[in-house]
Write a structure and sequence with these properties.
Helix 5 runs parallel beside helix 7 and helix 8 (about 185-200) runs parallel beside helix 9 (about 215-225). The protein starts with 7 loop residues before the first strand and ends in an 11-residue tail after the last helix. It has 18 helices and 16 strands. It is about 40% helix and about 20% strand. The strands form four sheets. It has an eight-stranded parallel beta barrel with strand order 1-2-3-4-5-6-7-8, surrounded by ten helices. It has a three-stranded antiparallel β-sheet with strand order 11-12-13.
Length: about 525
């Protein structure tokens, strides 16, 4: 059943989101993101500020060939400059010439910004707002007005803040967007103010543009909708200047799933939230936030044995929605808090054919071994491949594909400014054959990895496609300084799949070897390569 209220989604990832420290979208990045947002079905996609930079100009020029059946491209700008006729204002004319479907301009709604920042009278500011909107309406069908600092302005001078909105409405603005520019408002206040504005302007689309400086941008956006707002502006993953903007990845499922509010997102589109979030992170060169609500890797992860036991009976006991609704999935984590339920659930995901029962002694042995290893510093939460090998060993279903005889690593540095040189030599036994290999690397672990695979590739050609894609080292106890245990996490890839393994030792190379060993063994297991008969578990 659809709710009676419909809310428009306005994405400003390419403009407000691009102001995030450390993010620099190329024109190609912006085009790919814009097209992905259009595929998802976002109503309004703000592309940038024409005339503000050559990059934005090129973006709008390239986007003239767009073919979006359900989305509109928006150009962003400001009201005209004080003392200049609207028709001669370069900024306004850049918006008109941009080729966008709609424009959104911001203007001052806080009286002190008009008098101090612009240096004009309050009346002149009203004329600037109405005149700018009116000029744009002569050339573009849809004009939206962002009332900058509206909530602060309303607190300082509510009558004048309303006058600014009225000036925009008089100019013909189609939507009046209330901006919490400093991100300092709380949700109850947002609700009250938005309800007052909706009452005053019943024939206009009222929107909300919330920043996250108090970590309330999503809450404030939802409160605004509950008060009658019909447009939400935000960004994918909440990126944006300072602490970011309202996160549409959270706003959308809250509106659709929690409040039954129509935001023109189908069930199938909702399932794309996870991939949309990941795509924008890739374009922004950002690591995903594992704890991000709804789509984070840990959003539906369960670690405690009691929780896992409960969700195996009924997932809603510890999950507020079905993770599949937003394209995510349930994760059962393995740790020193794990019990039989964790093992059984993990086995269902990793080894569905195993058919273990609750009282199977293999489960008890696996739980015991996991807790022993984690007490020694292992972490299986991010190392599913090592965990699967552990389970196979516990079930007697694992045989080694090779046996290490020895390895030696040299790391030599000559002179203060010269780069170090790393070389590794290894000797392994594959079946009844001893194999020796050596390799150079850009570090000792890289050299070791190359040498081991060089020794094995003749016997196992599939290893030629394998490479390390990530490598992390963590010192487990700073009190012991250089004598401390270290944990090495390795992510490997063969171009199609990725898997993670873990190793722990007081020797970083030994820890790395253990993780590398698991990574290679796991690759051979998933490739279903039979091990030699001469080697044991």
């Amino acid at each position: 059943m659809k709710a009676s209220q419909q809310v428009e989604l306005f994405d400003t990832t390419l403009r407000d989101g691009a102001q995030t420290a450390g993010i620099a979208f190329s024109v190609e990045d912006k085009m790919r993101i814009a097209n992905r947002l259009a595929d998802f079905g976002i109503d309004w996609i703000e592309g940038g500020w024409p005339g503000a930079s050559p990059k934005d100009d090129l973006f709008f020029e390239q986007m003239r060939q767009r073919d979006w059946p359900n989305s509109a491209l928006v150009a962003f700008g400001s009201t005209g400059r004080p003392g200049h006729a609207a028709e001669k204002d370069h900024g306004l004319n850049n918006l008109v010439a941009s080729g966008a479907d709609a424009v959104c301009i911001f203007g001052k709604s806080w009286d002190i910004h008009a008098t101090k920042a612009l240096g004009i009278t309050l009346q002149e500011n009203l004329q600037l707002v109405s005149g700018s909107v009116a000029y744009l309406k002569q050339h573009i069908d849809t004009v939206m007005f962002d009332a900058e600092h509206f909530f602060d302005g309303y607190t300082a001078n509510p009558e004048y803040a309303m006058q600014v909105l009225q000036a925009a409405a008089d100019g013909g603005a189609d939507a009046l967007i209330l901006c919490d520019t400093n991100g300092g408002s709380v949700s109850s206040r947002v609700f009250d103010v938005v309800r007052e504005v909706v009452t005053r302007f019943p024939d206009k689309v009222i929107g909300i543009h919330a920043h996250n400086d108090c970590e309330l941008a999503v809450s404030n956006s939802v409160a605004a909708v509950q008060a009658g707002a019909r447009q939400v502006q935000g960004t994918i993953n909440g990126i944006g200047e300072r602490c970011g903007n309202a996160n549409l990845i959270s706003v959308i499922p809250i509106l659709k799933l929690k409040l039954n509010i129509d935001c023109d997102v189908s069930d199938d589109e909702l399932k794309q939230l996870f991939s949309l979030s990941s795509f924008v992170n890739e374009m922004a060169n950002r690591l995903p936030w594992k704890h991000q609500p709804f789509i984070g890797q840990n959003a539906f992860a369960h670690k405690g044995g009691i929780h896992v036991s409960a969700i195996r009976k009924l997932s809603s006991l510890y999950e507020h929605i079905d993770p599949g609704l937003v394209g995510n999935e349930q994760r059962i984590m393995v740790s020193d808090q794990a019990g039989r339920s964790n093992i059984l659930s993990k086995m269902q995901l990793l080894e569905p054919e195993a058919g273990l029962a609750d009282d199977d002694p293999v489960v008890a042995e696996a739980v015991k071994r996991i807790k022993e290893l984690e007490a020694a510093g292992y972490a299986f939460e991010g190392a599913d491949a090592s965990f699967q090998l552990l389970l196979r060993r516990a079930m007697g279903r694992f045989k080694r594909h090779f046996e290490l005889v020895r390895f030696r690593v040299y790391d030599e540095k000559r002179g203060h400014h010269d780069a170090p040189e790393a070389e590794a030599t290894v000797q392994v036994r594959v079946g009844g054959k001893l194999v020796h290999a050596a390799a150079l690397g850009n570090g000792p672990v890289n050299a070791m990895d190359k040498a081991i695979r060089a020794a094995l590739v003749d016997a196992y050609p599939g290893l030629s496609s394998m490479q390390l894609s990530d490598f992390k080292v963590r010192v487990l106890s700073t009190k012991q300084a250089t004598e401390a245990m270290v944990r090495v996490l390795i992510e490997s890839s063969d171009g199609h799949r990725k898997w993670s393994t873990v190793g722990v030792s007081t020797d970083v190379l030994e820890a790395a070897y253990r993780a590398l060993n698991d990574a290679i063994e796991y690759k051979l297991v998933i490739d279903q390569v039979p091990p030699p008969d001469e080697l044991g578990a």
